[in-house]
Amino acid sequence: MGKIFITAALTGGLITKAQNPNLPEQPDEIAEDAHRCFNEGAAIVHLHARDKNGKLSSDPKIYKEIHERIRAKCDIIIQDTTGGGPHLSLDERLSSIEANPEMASLNMGTMTRLLEPYKGTMQINPPWEIERFAKTMSEKGIKPEMEVYNPSMFVDVNNLIERNLIKKPYYINLVIGIRFQGGLPGTPKSLLMMLDQAPALRDVIFNVTAIGKTQIQLTTLAMVLGLNLRVGMEDNIYYSKGVLAKSNAQLVARSVRIARELGLEIASPQETREILGISKNTQ
Ligand code: ZN
User: Fold this and answer.
1) Are 187 and 204 in contact (CB under 8 A)?
2) What is the whole-number distance in angstroms between the Cα of residue 11 and the centre of ligand 1?
3) What spacing in Å lies between the alpha carbon of 196 and ligand 1's midpoint?
């Protein structure tokens, strides 16, 4: 088994400080948190920007400021969201990559949010927009992280491969446990079923993201399967039942401890760049 790598999803688009006051929102908080996650063993940091009031923003200037602050501290791989969040248009979502990250998320398929206050809003990703996002990332040398929430979204992955819009190795993040229409429950069966239905290609690298209360169990299952994983407050604001996470670094540190107990080695950011074929020189 090769080394596995860990992504820290620090902020997200839906969580607020009212839910967990330790959520990093402003560039200095995000950079500090990213550095702490790097020190604990995370190789990639997944970012969502907020404005001065903590409201979701796609302003590339804010992303740039976050990048510069992170780069002043460490060489963790920077991955910006293009999934954005409620009330952002497709163009706004894509504008985050004007800040020139090494990686960016690329959502497959379309879903509907089910929980208040965003109940009924859509995560819209028709195939032609997925293609446009992939093309723009490819032109900028940005590695896409294809987010797949149910097996029908593998159709969109295969479409990008067939149209030669993404390069090997294909990086797929299997996301389970999200409370969206189109999402799957956070169970081992969901994860195993997704893996069973995934494109049977040699050049696919999988990551596992589990939203909500089964985050630790399912990301640990990912490790047992030799897969990479994502943790962080975007996906789960708790450390354990009823106990809020003190920081994203605390969640990274726990997964690193478990990985070591399982006899797994954790890849550094540079080793992860080699695994994913990232050669982009940022900033
Ligand atoms: Zn995200």
Assistant:
1) no
2) 8
3) 25
Give 191-210 as a DSSP string. HHHHHHHS---TTEEEEEEE
State in Å: Cα 278 to ligand 1 middle.
20
Q: What is the pLDDT of residues 81-137, one digit of tens each?
A: 999 788 899 999 999 999 999 999 999 999 999 999 999 999 999 999 999 999 999
Helix, strand, or coil here: 112? strand
Q: Give distance in angstroms: CA of 78 to centre of ligand 1.
A: 12
Q: Specify the number of domains making up the chain.
A: 1
C-alpha of residue 279 to centroid of ligand 1, in Å: 23
Within 10 Å of residue 283's Cβ, how many Cβ atoms?
13
3-state secondary structure 245-281: CCCHHHHHHHHHHHHHHCCCCECCHHHHHHHHCCCCC
CATH number of the domain residue 135 falls in: 3.20.20.70
Give the predicted TM-score (pTM) of the model.
Answer: 0.97
Determine, yes or no, domain membership for 238. yes
Gap from CA of 218 to ligand 1 centroid (Å): 18
